[in-house]
Design a protein that fits this description.
Helix content is 39%, strand content 19%. With 575 residues, the chain is an alpha+beta fold. The longest helix has 50 residues. The two termini are 30 Å apart. About 1% of the residues have low confidence. Belongs to the NEMF family. Keywords: Protein biosynthesis, RNA-binding, rRNA-binding, tRNA-binding. Pfam families: NFACT-R_1, NFACT_N. This is Rqc2 homolog RqcH.
């Protein structure tokens, strides 16, 4: 993940000053453990300013409104208590080339600042610290005790101390090319590495884009650079410093990230705020998606493994109970042939009543024939009782397995992060498993809780132009089948295979052609556990013929009057 460097910080603060000063502070909300967002209102607009001290994604930028869920963090409550209703009057840096931004708040523009919100953009040491006018710390996003750091503790009631000053050489627009070149090439080495060593305020991403813009590989040794190479590189160096001074940035997307200098642009960005918000939202979502998907997959594998073991135990016990009738038959045979028994016998061979075949019956020599028969009858009754007790238990375990395999299939369909909808669909699965008591709430830090399923279904169009909707998880499946489906639609599902509910939307009076049915069947096959098969049996019926059994878990339904059609998942996968 590309960190916010000094250049990007200058760019975003410059844009914020131009559009958001002065602004009234109306609300403060904490999105997560690393991010607060402040509602700002100017004479022309109202929006939300995100301030994040995330170790990999520290940033300041305008972002989307927060979710409408309760804010349970104390830091945001402390901020709104102090800053609510005040004006944001300045966005300054505490010193040249320092990555610490000072947001100043006063009663009204033109008055002295009552509070300072210092945002320290320093990687894993990033922080957000609120002080009063005398720079005494009121609260901090991350407090640092004396034991944690004797150099710079950060605690309520103590004076705010700025981070240690920069020790490297500061880039200077007035420095000559000769002096600059001497400094960089003093010790031969890769040009990018030598620039990073020689000057403060630089970042790996900035230098990579600068060098590539100058048509120089970052790994090129300084000894091998030609005069033209040095001239081109110095020209871009000067361009960078002039941009910092003038403040005219070019926010752009590049192949593996973003730039505010326009170098290596693959697509322009509307503004710096939108650029930063989109980049870090996507990067953090991708990170959360990967972590959550791994956690859910591992958890499901563990649960299904235990349930599989339990089911096998029950099946073994049922298999044993299948011998119940055999014990009764042997007991009947023995009672019918009491006269054939002799004291001390360990085994007696008698002919079966129906087949006439010999049946060997093991006997206990210390018991008579009647006692041995009674023992066989008892074993028969014991196994019959076991079957009556085990069958419902096996049914319950198998029902759980079916449900969790359906969840597992839904997760397998959400295999890559592409948009925020993918993360939301995965979070809904997590919330569903928490509601069904398969996961502990505290085990997974939930960002938001929605009371109803989202409607970010997968959407396709059939050859005739009919819309096809596909549920991405069990709650969406239920919502699609029982809330969205209309009287004229058709409901599809892979036959007896975990998969998504699929809805073919039809207008009144329209009839789906054979090609539409086949296309929708292919989709239902693709969004099922049978995705890797050449053909998958798919059923379809009218939505009013799909029912949810009383007490059934999310996504589990029964249907009737269905038609079977073969779906080819590979056709959809090749698109």
């Amino acid at each position: 993940m590309q960190p916010v460097d000094f250049t990007t910080l200058i760019a975003t603060c410059s844009e914020l000053r131009a559009n958001w000063l002065p602004a009234r502070t109306e609300q403060v909300y904490q999105r997560d453990r690393y991010t607060i967002t402040i509602a700002l209102r100017t004479m022309k607009q109202r929006d939300w300013l995100d301030i994040s001290w995330h170790p990999q994604a520290t940033r300041i930028c305008i972002a989307e409104p927060p979710p409408r869920t309760p804010d349970t963090f104390t830091f945001s409550q402390q901020l709104i208590h102090q800053l609510g209703g005040l004006a944001l009057i300045a966005i300054d840096f505490i010193a040249p080339w320092e990555r610490v931004v000072d947001l100043k708040f006063a009663r009204r523009p033109g008055e002295a600042a009552l509070y300072h919100l210092y945002v320290e953009v320093m990687g894993k040491y990033s922080n957000a610290i609120l002080t009063d006018a005398n720079n005494e710390i009121i609260t901090a996003a991350h407090q640092v005790s004396q034991q944690q750091s004797s150099v710079r503790p950060i605690q309520t009631g103590q004076p705010y101390e700025t981070p240690p000053k920069l020790t490297g050489t500061i880039p200077n627009l007035n420095e000559s090319q000769t002096r600059w070149q001497e400094r960089v090439s003093l010790v031969p080495g890769a040009v990018k590495k030598q620039l990073l060593k020689s000057y403060s305020g630089l970042s790996s991403s900035l230098l990579t884009s600068m060098l590539l813009a100058a048509n120089i590989s970052p790994e090129t040794n300084t000894d091998t650079l030609t005069t033209d190479d040095w001239d081109r590189l110095f020209a871009h160096w000067q361009e960078w410093l002039q941009t910092l001074e003038v403040g005219k940035f070019q926010p752009s997307w590049i192949e593996n990230g973003y730039t505010v200098m326009g170098w290596g642009e693959t697509a322009p960005a509307k503004n710096i705020q939108e650029l930063l918000n989109q980049y870090y939202t996507d990067q953090l979502n991708q990170q959360l998606f990967s972590q959550l998907r791994h956690q859910l997959t591992q958890k499901l594998n563990n649960i299904l493994g235990k349930l599989g073991t339990k089911a096998k135990t029950f099946k073994d016990r049922l298999q044993q109970s299948d011998q119940a009738d055999e014990y009764r038959q042997k007991a009947d045979l023995l009672m019918a042939h009491l006269h054939n028994w002799q004291p001390g016998m360990k085994e007696i061979i008698l002919e079966d009543f129906e087949t006439g075949k010999p049946v060997a019956i093991t006997l206990q020599p210390d018991k008579n024939a009647v006692q041995n028969a009674q023992k066989l009858y008892k074993q028969h009754q014991k196994l019959k009782r076991a079957r009556a007790a085990v069958e419902p238990l096996l049914l319950e375990v198998q029902s759980e397995i079916d449900y969790l395999e359906q969840v597992e299939a839904a997760i397998s369909q959400i295999d890559n992060y592409q948009t925020a909808d993918d993360l939301q669909a995965l979070e809904e699965i997590r919330d569903e498993l928490i509601e069904q008591k398969y996961l502990e709430d505290l085990e997974y830090r939930r960002r938001s809780i929605t009371e109803t399923a989202s409607t970010n279904f997968h959407r396709y169009r059939t050859p005739s132009g009919f819309e096809v909707l596909i549920g991405r998880n069990n709650n969406q499946n239920d919502y699609l089948t029982f809330r969205v489906a209309g009287d004229y639609d058709l409901w599809f599902h892979a036959q007896e295979i975990p998969g998504s509910h699929v809805l073919l939307r039809l207008e009144p009076g329209t009839v789906a052609e054979e090609a539409d049915l086949e296309y929708t069947a292919n989709i239902a096959a693709y969004f099922s556990r049978g995705r890797q098969s050449e053909q998958v049996p798919v059923v379809y019926t009218q939505p009013n013929r799909v029912y949810k059994p009383k007490g059934a878990k999310p996504g589990l339904v029964i249907y009737k009057q269905e038609t079977i059609i073969w779906g080819k998942p590979g056709i959809i996968g090749d698109r």
